[in-house]
Design a protein that fits this description.
By secondary structure, this protein is of the alpha+beta class. It folds into 2 domains: 67 residues, Type Iii Antifreeze Protein Isoform Hplc 12, CATH 3.90.1210; 88 residues. 21% of the residues lie in helices and 32% in strands. The protein has a 5-stranded antiparallel sheet with strand order 5-8-7-6-9. It has a two-stranded antiparallel ribbon with strand order 1-2. A hairpin with a 5-residue loop joins strand 7 and strand 8. The N and C termini lie far apart (88 Å).
């Protein structure tokens, strides 16, 4: 009789069973929340066109992207929040890229300005908005019997905000107007070349230095 009492069926009121049941419920809720968070998405801004330092960015230049909430945190700008006025970017943002919050800066705080440069010769076809270019200045010949002055590079890895190519009567390049963001440290050289008797040329710069351009 004593043995049958010892092995009697435990009751649901047994404390150990209650603790075990609570742990199972907690594990199920935690798993549900983890899966829900992993599958949640949020709306953030992405660039619809190349964005260049010095250019005032508006929502017309942007598009909305749905991204995994677990992957972003506060790294990118929410598309559900207001976009700051008179803002630009610190470096070139290619079309289709998400817009990092750290890349945005007030236009007035950028250490540089966009300058329009008229180029007499042709510009490489790979150069377009968002490209990086080096700018070279060649003083015009004085007509004297001298060897002239070698061309000098006056801008390094300047982001292009806009380019308008001139096309000659035979369909070949006949100059261009190119707008580039010039750092403050190089601005005087560019303005001096524009005001003087220099021929300006641009060449494409390596894309590897893209992240370093346009920094404030």
């Amino acid at each position: 009789m004593e043995l049958s009492k010892r092995i009697r069926r435990p009751k649901w009121t047994d404390a150990r069973l209650l603790v075990g049941a609570v742990l199972v419920v907690v594990a199920m809720v935690a798993t549900y929340l983890l899966i829900s968070t992993a599958n949640a998405t949020t709306r953030v801004w992405a660039s619809a066109v190349p964005l260049v330092p010095g250019q005032v960015v508006s929502t017309e230049d942007l598009t909305v992207a749905e991204v995994n909430l677990a992957d972003i945190g506060d790294k990118y700008l929410s598309a559900d929040a207001g976009f700051p006025d008179q803002s630009s970017v610190r470096a070139v943002i290619a079309a289709g890229e998400l817009l990092p919050a750290s890349a945005l800066a007030p236009v007035a705080e950028l250490k540089g300005r966009i300058v329009a440069i008229d180029v007499a010769g042709s510009v490489p076809t790979v150069v377009d908005a968002g490209s990086l270019v080096d700018v070279w200045a060649q003083p015009e010949s004085t007509g004297l019997d001298d060897e002239g002055v070698d061309p000098q590079q006056i801008v390094t890895s300047a982001p292009v905000s806009n380019i308008t190519r001139e096309v000659g009567s035979f369909g070949v390049g006949d100059g261009a107007r190119i707008e580039v963001f010039v750092a403050s440290t190089e601005l005087s050289d560019v303005l001096g070349a524009l005001d003087g008797n220099s021929l300006l040329s641009v060449v494409g710069a390596p894309a590897a230095v893209r992240a370093e351009s346009g920094q404030s």
